[in-house]
Amino acid sequence: ASAAMRAESAAASLCRRRFLSTAVSTAFIGLCSHKPSHAARFNLPLTYASGVLETQALGSPQLTPRAELLNAIKSGKGIDEALSSLVQADPSRGRGAIADALGGEWKLIGSLRADAFSPLLELPPPIRPVSVQLLGESAAKEVGAGRIAQRLDFPFGLKLELSSGAAPETEDESVLKILPPFRFEVVLGGTRWTVVESGSDADFRSVNVRTKEAQAAPPNRYEQLYLETSGKAGDLRVSRIIEGDPVIVGSIFIHERM
């Protein structure tokens, strides 16, 4: 009987750990990831869907790189090519991680190579959350100074939020380094419940049942490939994970300022 009780207790503990891991992984990666394989999976504003035209010297209309990217997101095709053209004209001139314009609330509208972990963003439209990233003062007001936040906003008021420390690298002004502590919270009606708080990358990845290799990987580093600096709603930002958790290294995210 004692052996049976121990086995039952171990099974229950494993189930709780897997549930917590799924919740944290879904919230974190789901906040940052979006499948690009179908246009309906992107929260593309209709005002951008038609694209913006510019005129060449000979008068023939041609889509700007920005409009090409937005159209590619809408169609789910050619995003890689459109990004290649766009990032060559980065308005922040390779200083996106230290630019004042980086601060604000940013809505995820598309991504590349980030399609393995986005289950909540695949929910039906009536209950599908919006993925939002908070940086600068917008993050400080919600999760404290020197931190950033990834958040899923559900239509019925529930929010899942992961926050962490963040700082620009001194040797590369385009790169933002993600730092502990990590805090995963559930927010509803103005009340916050802390589900997980981890003091290191290894601890947080352990909660997510990552491999030993992943736990030993360096902190995540986000390169700001493109940042529009008007500070107005509709600005675009493109970032790429260049180092860190091997599951998400190489992922590219496209955000729009809210």
Protein model, in words:
The chain has 258 residues and is of the alpha+beta class. It has 7 helices and 11 strands. An 8-stranded antiparallel barrel has the order 3-4-5-6-7-9-10-11. The longest helix is centred in the first third of the chain and has 31 residues. About 21% of the residues have low confidence.
Strand order of the largest sheet: 3-4-5-6-7-9-10-11
Rg, alpha carbons: 20 Å
| Classification by helices and strands | alpha+beta
Using the alpha-carbon principal axes, give the shape: globular
Helix content: 25-40%
Largest sheet: 8 strands, antiparallel, barrel
Number of helices: 7
Q: Output mean pLDDT.
A: 81
Q: What fraction of the residues are assigned to beta strands by DSSP?
A: 25-35%
Question: pLDDT below 50 for ≥5 consecutive residues: which ranges?
Answer: 7-60
Main attributes?
single chain; 258 residues; alpha+beta; two-stranded antiparallel ribbon; 31% strand
Question: What topology does this entry show?
Answer:
Layout: H1 2-32, H2 46-49, E1 53-55, E2 61-63, H3 65-75, H4 79-86, E3 104-112, E4 130-135, H5 137-143, E5 147-153, E6 159-168, E7 175-188, E8 191-198, H6 201-207, H7 212-216, E9 221-227, E10 236-243, E11 252-257
Antiparallel strand pairs: 1-2, 3-4, 3-11, 4-5, 5-6, 6-7, 7-8, 7-9, 9-10, 10-11
Helix pairs in contact: 3-4
Short structural summary:
Helix content is 28%, strand content 31%.
